[in-house]
Amino acid sequence: MATHTGVAPPALAASAAYILRGNDIGTLTTAAPRLYPHLWSWDAAFVAIGLATVSVPRAIAELRTLLGAQWTTGMLPHIVFGPDEGYFPGPDVWGATTPSGARTSGICQPPVHAIAVRRVLDAGRRNGGADRDLAERFAAETFDRWLAWHRWLATARDPRGRGLLEIYHGWESGMDNSPRWDAAYAAVRPREDLLRGRARRDLEHVADARQRPTDEEYRRYLWLVHQMKEAGYDDDAVRETVDFRMTDVFMSAIAALASDVLAEIGDELGRRAEATELRALAERFRGGVLSTVSPDTGLARDEDVRTGLRLDAPTIGGFAPLLCGGDPRVFSRQLALFTGPEWCGHPDLRYALPPSTAPGHAGFSSRTYWRGPQWPFMNWLLYWTLHRAGEVDLAMSLRAEGLRQLGDLAFGEYYEPMTGEALGSAHQSWTAAVALDWLIVPPAG
Ligand code: 9WN
After folding, report:
1. Rounded to 5 degrees, what are φ and ψ at 111?
2. Does the annotation count 416 as an active-site position?
3. Which residues have CB under 6 Å of ligand 1?
4. How far is CA 29 from each of CA 21, 109, 239, 364, rounded to the nearest angstrom?
5. How many CB atoms lie within 10 A of CB 126?
6. Tens-place pLDDT, residues 138-167
7. From the CA of 171, how far away is ligand 1's center (Å)?
8. Among 36, 167, 177, 381, which residue has the most ligand 1 atoms within 8 Å of its CB, making it the best to mutate?
9. 230 is known as an active-site residue
10. C-beta separation of 324 from 283 below 8 A
11. Rounded Cα–Cα distance for residues 138 and 136 (Å)
12. Is the peptide bond before 57 cis (omega within 30 degrees of 0)?
């Protein structure tokens, strides 16, 4: 098998490992060398999945760094800052330090981490010997920490038990400027220009500013951070005061999936009561996600909690039911849509992979971040989940196309869907990580 540029799998794997090694600053793997010189929560999970293919101990160290910054509430913060001062908004803006002394942001990201624990455990068992012991000890020692994270989400972020997680910043979704959030952001009116006199460091590291959110968007992002900081990052106070309050259907589906995965780990550890609790959570989130599916479009929808309005933007977020399952009819309708001409089967796509926003939609922009480009880590997440759900052919096609896309060895943050051009940051860690997993771990493994 060769990629589109003829790169042989060993060369691609070696390059991916080289990228991860290069981004490793000892305690953490930066999400990207220049644009993102710190640890990001959901990136760290995918990074650990990739690292597990070359070093189980190093994968564990990555997850331990994240856990070392866990808040006493159970929240895993979306950024754990390293020593580099080259990111804005940095620790001075967030003003959040944990009792353990970790400098963090004050918000979270989707809870994909149990999948990483599963993958690390499996890698340890495949290798045997010291790796097996280490991975099993790690899973047993940290199980309660992951559980605390899921419990925090279930209480602080789903206060009414609807099975839908609330977010208070688009950054929490990990899909920052997706059209999913346009309407909610339009209602955010910053009362101070917190960008004035501050440099957008992110724009220094991309070829073209159009690949990133606009200044107008950044003013709103900073205003929300300001509001949360003013509320002392207190969960109840933030919920009541912040100008952005949305349910995130994709994050909720990830919570369902990851709760099931953590329950399976709980079973293996003999933690039966906790496994039962996690399965009930998975059921709750699955029910929440399914309750939002539009009978017209077949896509799941986010909701503005303040107005009760459901949002119909056709984005990758609408495919949340593909991650959590639960209703065979919804699932097969989504599969048809996903592989059809509006999405992966769109005739103009260079690779049959899901764009972040449907081409043709008013909010679509082929080079702009979450408004159109394809994201390799997302392709991996869907590959892994669909394989687990028994959709092996589709999963293997995502894997093959995903690897062809990465044959340019750029390890881009995201890709222009029509031309295949790498955009955003080069040498993005989670992109390298998923390439390694695809190349090294047997698909059923
Ligand atoms: C803000 C690190 C992160 C990803 C997100 C992605 C982007 C940050 C930014 O980069 O967000 O959190 O500065 O743009 O949207 O999904 O975790 O790779």
Report:
1. -85, 70
2. no
3. 31, 36, 40, 42-43, 78, 171, 174, 176, 202
4. 8, 17, 32, 32
5. 16
6. 999 999 999 999 999 999 999 999 999 999
7. 7
8. 36
9. no
10. no
11. 5
12. no
Q: Which residue has the tokens 């029910």?
A: 287
Mean pLDDT of 311-332: 97
On the CB side of 46, CA atoms within 13 Å amount to 27
| Angle formed by the axes of helices 272-290 and 249-268, nearest 10° | 160
Beta bridge partners of 310: 303
Q: 394: which 2 tokens? A: 């589709």
Smallest CA separation from ligand 1 atom 7, residue: 174
What is the Cα–Cα distance from 201 to 178, expressed in whole angstroms?
21
Residues 6+ apart with CB under 8 A from 161: 154, 284
Convert the pLDDT of each residue in 340-350 to its tens digit: 999 999 999 99
Alpha helices in 111-193 (DSSP H): 113-127, 129-156, 170-173, 182-186
Mean pLDDT calculated for residue range 295-324 = 97
Q: Is the pLDDT of residue 5 over 80?
A: no
pTM for this structure? 0.97
